[in-house]
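Handout, section 4.2: multi-component inputs.
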Amino acid sequence: MRRSVRWERMKIAKVPGKNNKHKVLMYAISTCAWCKLTKKFLKDNNIEYEYVDVDLSNIEGREKIRREILKRGGSLSYPAIIIDDKILINGFRKDEIKETLEI
Amino acid sequence: MITLGKVRQRAESDAKTHGYYLNPDPNFLGDLLEGLKRNEERYGYPSCPCRLASGKFEFDRDITCPCDYRDPDVEEYGACYCSLYVKKELYEGKTPILPVPERRPSEKQARAYRILAETPAEEPSGAAVVVAQELSEITLRLWYCKQCGYVCFREEPPYVCPICKAKREMFAELKIRTDA
Ligand code: SF4
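Output:
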């Protein structure tokens, strides 16, 4: 069975949190367990963040995401977390995320 | 219809065949199986839950679960890219399960961003749909393993030969010529 998917260009979801010291944007895959773990980790730590599910974005959105990640020297693997528009962390690397977010 | 039970059963029996274990964290495992189910529903095949699928099976064949990269990743890192399949030491918690670097070649990954198989079901009317035709071309060819003779018909040779485990470099294109 094939279910139709609703394609968005690039839908940015915002998750509120008490700690908004850093700007956190995460590119994720909606079905990825590592991405889910990262989302939960940020939420549990009260971090305010935004995320985009790349697999639910359309071709233009995907191209944009691809360029944004590569531009910052990252690789196309998820989660790809961009902190303060410049630091990119690929994968749920807890220590690195903690250090960058000062938590 | 594909059920979660079926997805789980398939993964369990595949793990058994290869001497692997499934991720010991029930929530994490549940998320991965749910992801595989979701992908099978939306694409028609169980594409890797942690990677971006193009939606075209021929293109996503190498990342259709169990993917081409699983065995070399489990061997080198103790877990596949998603950590669905793990080695005994990781299953037992003796070694922590950490993120595994992506083994899929980056050129192949990049192309996945320009291929979208399905036409949007609810694309707002009037919006332009961009189709990168020349970039989405997928050519299927015959490949053979120079070590054991295994032959397959796909876009590129497998990462490792499923029969004799020879590396991708051992594959050569098989050209068939019919002489009149
Ligand atoms: S990385 Fe693991 S879960 Fe993902 S496709 Fe490969 S074997 Fe399946």
